[in-house]
């Protein structure tokens, strides 16, 4: 299959590219940065997802992973508008089989910079709209919402032992996902999956369920 991946140079996007290459697919990567992968089956196109995009015909799978994690308005432009730009450009044609957007657990729980949370919540909602419009092609569209992932965008947390422990403690399983695990989910949702569409898949090690019930120990009424 022919697969387009935006944000293909680093982190989750790069792991997704490698997964599809290892499975024998043709991959076209779109990123502002130079290529970080060399393969006969990989084509790298340097482009800004917010702007004019190069022509790519016959994509079977479109995956949007380009994103930034900043407390400013560029976050909406890249994470939400960039996602929309890529999918509207490449997905709505007869060869399409599946679309996947990389959202975030922050799009569900709001626990991030305000604009980041809003951008990812928008991605989740937009993907449902895509599913409605892709159905006539027999194609699926889903979003994937990771919690903490061990990528360079999170170095500011991971490089501080105390801060990283506090972050890990916010998950039920006490860990973050590796980008390769997210890539496995991406492959399943776009290749193996044929019947699920319009859904958001949360892969967060139980972060969203982690809560502390605070109550008086002297109250015996609920024992």
What does this protein structure show overall?
This protein has one domain (2-204): NAD(P)-binding Rossmann-like Domain (Rossmann fold), CATH 3.40.50.720. The chain has helices at residues 11-22, 74-90, 106-109, 114-134, 155-158, 161-168, 179-192, and strands at 2-6, 26-31, 42-46, 61-64, 98-102, 140-146, 200-203. 36% of the residues lie in helices and 16% in strands. The chain is globular.
Question: Helices, strands, pairings?
Answer:
Blueprint: E1 2-6, H1 11-22, E2 26-31, E3 42-46, E4 61-64, H2 74-90, E5 98-102, H3 106-109, H4 114-134, E6 140-146, H5 155-158, H6 161-168, H7 179-192, E7 200-203
Parallel strand pairs: 1-2, 1-4, 2-3, 4-5, 5-6, 6-7
Helix pairs in contact: 1-7, 2-4
In brief:
The protein is of the alpha/beta class and 223 residues long. It contains 7 helices and 7 strands, in the order E-H-E-E-E-H-E-H-H-E-H-H-H-E. It has a 7-stranded parallel beta sheet, sandwiched between helices.
Mean pLDDT: 94
Runs in which pLDDT lies below 50 for 5 or more consecutive residues are none
Fraction in beta strands:
15-25%
CATH class: Alpha Beta
User: Helix/strand/pairing class, anyone?
Assistant: alpha/beta
Features:
globular; single chain; 7-stranded parallel beta sheet; alpha/beta; 7 helices; 36% helix; 16% strand; 223 residues; Rossmann fold
